[in-house]
Amino acid sequence: MPVKPQFAEVIVNKAVQAVDRIFHYQIPDRLAAQIEVGSIVIVPFGRQKLEGIVVGFVAEPEVAQVKEIDELVFPFPLLSKALIDLAYWMADYYLCPKVSALQAMLPGGLKLLPTGLKGKNTEYAFLVQPSGGLGQEGKPSGRIGSKQQQILAYLGEHPGSPVTQMLAATGASRSSLKSLLEKGLVEVTREEVYRDPYGQRKLPKADQHQLTEEQINVLKSIETEYALNNRPILLHGVTGSGKTEIYLRLIERMLTDGKESIILVPEISLTPQLVSVFKSRLGEKVAVLHSGLSWGERRDAWVNIARGVVKVVVGARSAVFAPCFHLGLIVMDEEHEQSYKQDNVPRFHAREVALERCRLQKASFLMGSATPSVETYYWALEGRYRLITLKYRIYQRPMPTVKIVDMRQELKEGNRSIFSRLLQEKLRERFSRGEQSLLFLNRRGYHTFVSCRTCGTVLKCAHCNISLTSHGGNRRLSCHYCGYSIPVPKTCPQCGSLAIRHFGTGTERVAEEVKKLLPEARVARADGDTTARKGAYDEIYFGVKSGAVDVLVGTQMIAKGLDFPLVTLVGVISADMALHLPEMRAGERAFQLITQVSGRAGRGALPGEVVLQTYNPEDPTLLAAARQDYSTYYQGEIERRRISGYPPFGSVIRILFSGEDYGHLQRDALIIARFVQAELNEESEILGPAPAPLEKIKDRFRIQMMIKTRNLAETRLDLVRGLDLARGEGYPHKNILVAVDVEPLNM
Ligand code: ADP
Ligand code: ZN
Ligand code: ZN
């Protein structure tokens, strides 16, 4: 057995700039056999005890007085060497502390690991060396009796079996189990059930489809690419073209080869539909990770992945860190989705992380979308990725027909309803035929703002520079940023006038108007308000799927991924909202949203229709979206990007300053900007500092500065130098926060 050096390199759980480095600790003899790269340990740090991750070993410590590791908190490593390397890459790329990147890779971060392991009462048994990658050194000693053999065989088939069940099934005794434990062949953990959040619900069965000819050809191209060049692939397939089936076939291939797969989906599409497709096709080998899981459920899944019991991981953004030791494939569905970017530290984009992870683990990467992000499409055309397309819907079903309705004309002709006459007529028609309709509006609430007719004051949150939205049939006003909420005032707080009026429309009001139009119809609403309770979204989903809902009203959570074959009408209440955001990506997002929501119509045997209501019927983005014409849209957008030097032609780093005192904030931002400017290379320019688009949130003012650059690698270093120099001079002051976002999306 190779002798391990006595000193471990440890990153401790403390996200402070000055502490973000590697410390050396002595490995006590009693732990020498168990500590590996990726082990979670407790170490003395100053006067504290902190969790830490072992990231390597050294023969000679860098200081003479080296302290000893106190404890090992988990019996086997949860992070591979590849994931630790990935964390280092993230720290460099996104300018975050290494420990923050490592924390993002563990369920609940480091802090929760020790307590999560103790005090549970059911016992579960595992083979120490399952098929997964947790290599353990050393051979078992002593004879293995036949009862013990039976236990080993049983656990091979039923990893994580409850001990009582395993003993009953094999007829073995506790003492046989005990000798296996002593030989180090079996491990027992004590805890609640290996919780399967979907265990209770009977999920609909998903059949395997006979592939269409187009799917067969695409699959062949994908496999050839992976075998020959292993370039990342962009699968550009229209909505309803059967991309999921392609993913499934690739995953099945990986399983045959003994490799693991990670399927990334936007949080919003982790519907029972998607879960049931994966579960019923791939069975026990799938773990589903999403934000609704309890800490225990998440930890269970993580452990099973690391042990190699789970071979397919389906999850949102952070599933990109799933500890698959034999990773063969990462699939990123709806590649263009914004939710792949995390907006707190570490501010990573799962696409970039997946690209790097696949490079490190020599795995394949597949991105799928009907509306790829402009950057990804550009790189695919440039050859950095391989572009493969699915042009047709399954069975060549037609794309929905889209009618654009000019709402100015409606108003002129006396229709003040939020529904155009065409939409009203179509809604009635659908209802009478027993078909389903879907109404989309990307704003929750009843009205979207309240103002005084006398003095023009718009009611705003007391803590944010944001107008308040009315909810509950106009009884309360609340802030969508901080949750601040007040009853609707009877008089204007500014001038005392009684002329308080409500403006704008949210989903709550749309649902109410549908009930007026179709009093008999069963109406459901899916938005942040109706789905806050656990399980609520699933109920709505099953209601629509089973035909118990006639009209579904919702925000973007109904725009994407849903496959409801009975929906034949989609109404977009206002296509304008997304178009006019003061952001570089506003057009891209509007195009994606409208294309995606239109794609919900006509997915079954009946053809679909879409009614798009707008005050800008000539807008080119809208027209392209209505025709589902990605290529025209892309050509317009890429030219705009080229001219302005925005991604993919350059990168952006945003530095956001926030603080409670505007004067101090402004001063510090200006001084820090000067420090950075002095260090900055010539391929970069600073925009700002200037007030951020949301100037005040939760009582903190916000000022931002952008660095636009054609040399991101260099600029990162320049920025770090500038910030360090400023810090050396005492900037920012203590009460001011500086947040660095490399390649922000919401701009
Ligand atoms: P996309 O993700 O491309 O929008 P989906 O994968 O959801 O499309 O597929 C659309 C629908 O077509 C689904 O209901 C799916 O079950 C069905 N489907 C996919 N492939 C086939 C096939 N080869 N034969 C029949 N139906 C299929
Ligand atoms: Zn007033
Ligand atoms: Zn607020």
Account of the 3D structure:
It is a single chain. This protein is of the alpha/beta class. The chain is built from 21 helices and 30 strands. It has a 7-stranded parallel sheet, sandwiched between helices. A 6-stranded parallel sheet has the order 16-26-25-17-24-23, with helices on both faces. β23, α16 (about 535-545) and β24 (about 550-555) form a beta-alpha-beta unit. It is globular, with a radius of gyration of 28 Å. The protein starts with 6 loop residues before the first strand and ends in a 5-residue tail after the last strand. Mean pLDDT is about 85; it is low at about 110-120, about 130-140 and about 190-195. Adenosine-5'-diphosphate binds near residues 211, 215, 242 and 243. It catalyses: Couples ATP hydrolysis with the unwinding of duplex DNA by translocating in the 3'-5' direction; ATP + H2O = ADP + phosphate + H(+).
Question: What structural keywords apply?
Answer:
747 residues, seven-stranded parallel β-sheet, six-stranded parallel β-sheet, 21 helices, 22% strand, binds adenosine-5'-diphosphate, binds zinc ion, helicase, DNA-binding
In short:
Helices cover 32% and strands 22% of the residues. It is built from 21 helices and 30 strands.
Average pLDDT figure: 86
Shape: globular
Count the E strands. 30
User: What structural class do the secondary elements suggest?
Assistant: alpha/beta
Physical arrangement of strands within the biggest beta sheet = 11-12-10-13-14-9-15
Low-confidence stretches are 112-121, 130-141, 191-195
Strand content: 15-25%
DSSP helical segment count: 21
**Rg, Å, rounded:** 28 Å
Cα distance spanning the termini:
55 Å
